[in-house]
Amino acid sequence: MFSCNTSTSGHSVFLLTGFPGLEASQHWVSIPINLICVVSIVGNSIILFVIRTDPALHEPMYIFLSMLAASDLGLCGSTFPTMVRLFWLGARELPFDLCVAQMFFIHAFTYVESGVLLAMAFDRFIAIRDPLHYATILPHSAVAKVGAAILVRAVLLNLPEPILLRSLLFPQISELSHCYCLHCDLVGLACSDIQINSLVGLVSILFSLCLDSSLIMLSYALILRTVLGIASPGERFKALNTCVSHLCVVLIFYLPKLGLSVLHRVEKHNYPALAVLMANLHFLVPPLMNPIVYCIKSKQIRQGFLKRFQQKRVDVS
Fold first, then answer.
1. Is the N or the C terminus of the chain less surrounded, counting Cβ atoms within 10 Å?
2. Predicted local confidence at residue 222, as pLDDT
3. How much is the pLDDT for 307?
4. What are the phi and psi torsion angles at 97 (to 5°)?
5. Which sequence ranges form a coiled-coil region, renumbered to this chain (predicted)?
């Protein structure tokens, strides 16, 4: 912890943290993390390409999936550069402005992904509850408005945080808990009164992750009630099967965050390297797993990819 005797506003330098106790072998430890980033970028780019180029996939479910892939790419782009700088170049220093900008984009893309998962849950409920009017209830214009609302909400919820951070005093040099910048981490390093900043951060989380997760659970309760009202067991299974991919993605998104929260409160100081690893993976696992889950569970995505791949081979031949 650095002293607040020489605190400044807007001119501080933050030191990124790698794996405590593993500095000598940090390059090797970071190889799997870098591979996860590369695979995530390639996988989500493929999802976007397949959905964009296949007219059969221009349906609300797949448009929301493309939004999810875009938010995953944004999250990778927000975290990957500082990981590369730290693990491979040994550059720990990050100026205040860059740190705040990274914090904004990390939180914004996280909130976008949470909002898209909520929209996908609503999409599945409509598809099961009223399949005959599905296209009428969710036309492309409505999907575009939902996507715009998700993006605007993410920006508005995160915009006050960097503005308020500029009014705080920080030590000239501060050490972060991770290899990227988060709001709770920055606020904890401030030398000023942080009550307003903490309140804004809490409100931001309540109206994004907490609200979305509650509404997702409500959507699945309504889906379950609708499915139980279907007479045919075969139709029940078919209806539930359309939700498996989305449910897996929801669990992949929220469970690592829950695990990291528990770890920070219970064993963070006993196992600092594990805490840093979990902090990295809780941002990297969803972008990695989302394309894999949908490629495995969605026949339409697989067919679209194979069709484009075969077409490319024919063009090359």
1. C
2. 94
3. 79
4. -65, -45
5. none
For residues 286 and 254, what is the distance between their CA atoms, to the nearest angstrom? 9
Contacts of 101-104 with C-beta under 8 Å, sequence gap 24+, read 101/162, 102/78, 102/180, 102/181, 103/161, 103/162, 103/165, 103/181, 103/182, 103/183, 103/186, 104/158, 104/159, 104/161, 104/162
Structure-token match 């999250």, residue found: 75
pLDDT of 267 over the 60 cut:
no
Question: pLDDT at residue 266 above 90?
Answer: no
Examine the pLDDT at 92 and tell me if it is beyond 90. no
Please state the three-class secondary structure of 82-143 as a single string: HHHHHHCCCCCEEEHHHHHHHHHHHHHHHHHHHHHHHHHHHHHHHHHHCHHHHHHHCCHHHH
CA dihedral 178, 209, 190, 72 (to 10 degrees): 40
Find the mean pLDDT for residues 119-130: 94
Question: Among candidates 242, 278, 284, which has minimal Cα distance to 260?
Answer: 278
Give the C-alpha separation, 147 to 153, whole Å.
10
Angstrom distance (rounded) from CA 38 to CA 59: 28
What is the pLDDT at residue 29? 72
Look up the pTM and report it.
Answer: 0.91
What tens digit of pLDDT does each residue of 34-56 get? 888 899 999 999 999 999 988 88
CA angle centred on 279, ends 28 and 49, rounded to 5°? 80
Q: Answer whether 249's CB lies under 8 Å from 118's CB.
A: no
Q: Are 290 and 69 in contact (CB under 8 A)?
A: yes
Whole-number Å distance between alpha carbons of 30 and 35? 9
